[in-house]
Amino acid sequence: MVRAAANRAFEPAKSFFTEIGEMVLLTGRTVASALRAPYPYGNEFIGQFLFALQLCWFPMLISTVAFGFGAPGLQAANFLSLFGALDRLGGFFVLASIREFAPFVTAVVVAGVAGTAITADLGARKIREELDALQVLGVDPIKNLVVPRFLSLMILTGLLNIFALLFGIFGGVCAMLLYRQPLGGFFGTLFSNASTTELFFSMTKTTLFGAIIAIVCCYKGMTATGGAAGVGRAVNEAVVISLLGVFAFNYVFTQAMLATNPELQTIK
Questions:
Q1: Is 47 left (phi over 0), alpha (psi -120 to 50) or beta?
Q2: How many CB atoms lie within 10 A of CB 218?
Q3: SS3 of 128, please?
Q4: Quick check: bond before 103 cis, omega within 30?
Q5: pLDDT tens digits, 113-162
Q6: Whole-angstrom Cα distance, residue 223 to residue 125?
Q7: Can you give the residue range of the structural domain that contains 125?
Q8: Taking the complete model, does pTM exceed 0.70, yes or no?
């Protein structure tokens, strides 16, 4: 009786770590399939890339301008104005937007828009037993379905990060104009603190965010059960696990970046 109660208590944790292990295995199989010839997924890759881009570009525009104008823009400008240092807002944007806000907003939008579409699509195919039919016909679902979505989401997320950076900085410019301050100091401190290393790490981090989102969403879609209600649950779980994975990976990545590049911690 005690053992049964203990098993019930630890069942959620057990299933969670089991899913994490299966996602790691799926990642390995996906990378191996992407590198191994043949490459029959060209059309699917282009279609998934354009489909995700069509879904994500407008939410990205609204989100990045709103976040750039709101949190690091108005709030930081309000704080810096107390010390007469509004010209330092550009340097703050390097820390806030390039390092954290732009990658986070990109990951949230991609997971919430493109990731849910991927999970729903693969989940519906799983419920209709199309994935089983492909395996019976000798078609590898990993190479033909997961790999194009994995690659397209990685590339798209990295490119959308540039989009997020530009419109996030535009939000900061709007904040400076609202405070009736010249833009020379903003861009001066922005470019004096920005570096190719910072931009490289931002792009790398965001691209890996896309890989995490793609793997989680593909896994939850391909393991969906329970009909239409099961697909809905898989979509919800995919978003939650994707964001948890992004937050955990961001913590480790940022700490490693600052440890290997201590000059990034110096504000000029």
A1: alpha
A2: 28
A3: coil
A4: no
A5: 999 999 999 999 888 888 888 888 888 888 888 999 999 999 999 999 98
A6: 10
A7: 2-265
A8: yes
Determine contact, residues 34/155, Cβ cutoff 8 Å.
no
112: left (phi over 0), alpha (psi -120 to 50) or beta: alpha
Structure-token pair, residue 262: 């201590």
Instruction: Give the Cβ contact number of residue 3 at 10 Å.
Output: 7
Closest C-alpha to 26, from 243, 241, 255, 256: 241
What's the rounded Cα separation, in Å, for the pair 115 and 156?
A: 12
Q: Do residues 219 and 80 lie in contact, with contact meaning Cβ atoms separated by under 8 Å?
A: no
Token pair for 224: 């969906």
Assign 11 to helix, strand or coil: helix
Burial 246-260 (b: 16+ CB within 10 A, else e): beebbeebbeebeee
Domain count, the chain: 1
